[in-house]
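Entry 14. Structure prediction run on the chain below.
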Amino acid sequence: METAEKRILNSGTTDPNKILPMKYTWARTHYKAGVANNWTPDEVNMQKDVETWKNPAALSEDERRLIMWNMGFFSTAESLTANNLVLTIYKHITNPECRQYLLRQAYEEAVHTDTFIYCCDTLGLDPDDVYTMYERIPSIKHKDEFVVNMTKSIFDPNFTTEGTENIQRFVHDLVGFYIIMEGIFFYAGFVMMLSFLRQNKMVGIGEQFQFILRDESVHLAFGADLINTIVQENPEIWTPQFKTTITENIKRGVELESAYSHDCLPNGILGLNAHVIDDYLKYIADRRLERIGLAKVYGTENPFPWMSEIIDLKKEKNFFETRVTEYKNAGSLKW
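Output returned:
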């Protein structure tokens, strides 16, 4: 079988177990980046976090609210992400090298879920409080419902990716999953939690969010490459109407995340307020649009230049320099 016969979708003649020779080397690159990023939450010392959390004077009520809101959203969002991967996306992606990356990503989502178990246990948080916030807090509930509704097509047991309309539905759901959920909803939470790290507060949780961000950056890159390749192989799906639909979905995602940010930060804290996060959301939304070949909407500058290095991974070594325990894979070369 020739490598050229491989396709992301509907590759009925391709043996899904035959990964060589590879056609989509970007999938292999993302897989190896994920392996090089390997970490577990219990590597991170949270003693200072415990002392800070139990000291009533160490954090303001607004700071505690921000932390709890983010714990409530991420603790269930990571499980939602893992379910999307394992139950639907893997099933419809027929390419073996892409499937290998999806397995790696599923493992990372399990690590992220474990992170919030570890944080809840260490800080002594009430799990019923944290893990039901997506039901009790409207701004969290609306985000989760939006993603669930946007990705419901591929949960249909009779769904297939045969035909132009179904491929459009699949790409539509991939955008909801990778671009909006992981690329917009997650990133506002990252900037909130990493602002604590800059102030040397809740440094253990901040460090774990830093590691999650590093993983999510690769997830987002893989998702964009996956979407772009499906569009390249099926150009008939990329109609003006479909592009408008995708753009409107991303804009709606920005609106929902903005409402959540204002809920998290009703009064603002040192160096951070909801209006500045609104600008950041618009900035990253433009980047996500451009990444999948769509026009920018907002034209906003990045209000958090200190985040660029972390998010863009331009200096990978910074992650290792800030770790409590150095981690290096013996077989891992330069990225």
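Residues 312-335 have pLDDT under 50 and may be disordered.
Filed with the rest of this week's runs.
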